[in-house]
Amino acid sequence: LIRLKAVTATLLDDEAAGEEPRDDSWLTALLENISFESRAGRQIPYRTPEHRTELAITEGAVRGLIRAAGDTVDGIVVGRSVLIGDVTTLDAPIAVDVDATVVWRNSIPDAADHLRTAIHDTLSANTDLRLAGITVTINDVHVTTPRHF
Amino acid sequence: MHVARRETALASELTRLISTTPGVTRLYAPNPVVHVLAAAERIVPDVGVTGHSVPVRVDFASSSVTASIGVDTSATAGAIGTAVCTRLRDHLATAGLDLAVQITIAFVAA
Question: What is the pTM for the complete model shown?
Fold first, then answer.
């Protein structure tokens, strides 16, 4: 058993040495995104007519709204989203950049259009942001194995 | 101590007021962490558990009332937030207090 253990360890070392270096970039990207999305971020104001009253929504909550809007669109999965511009100033033009993955067999232009519309409608209804543009970048295609019943 | 007691009493009243505003799911601590990743946040309203709410912060020294709230999608986030502000303003006016009100929507339960 002792000899077997020693030989097995040597074989594993040899096998590992012959393999390509492991690519951990996806894990780093995932952890960075979790860290990014877990921050509340900037305070985005609403118009409030009442005296001495401030109402705001956090950037993190808005990112959650963008993700929720993405959930309503078939065949697309929203990844990272970024609000570009001075969101802390009312009426400042804001751009939204969204990374997304399309499920294979869906039209990429159609999916991106539907996502843009969903995000626009959600943000228009729930915030006072002045949207100057929404850019959707499809950075991956999710391939699913067709099911045969 | 008297001021502290008044602050605590008012904070308790305002917390109850916000918690009972339609569309408000709970009050959050004013920390920089947002709860978007917690699937549990979506489950909590479904199972009828309100979770641990953080009281409204009342500070007579700076003449301010601040709170971070979570809202659902029964109305738009802005409409629910505005309703909260209006209720607080009305209550403060009734109590003869002119305090600044700062409400932050920290989470939208989609």
Answer: 0.77
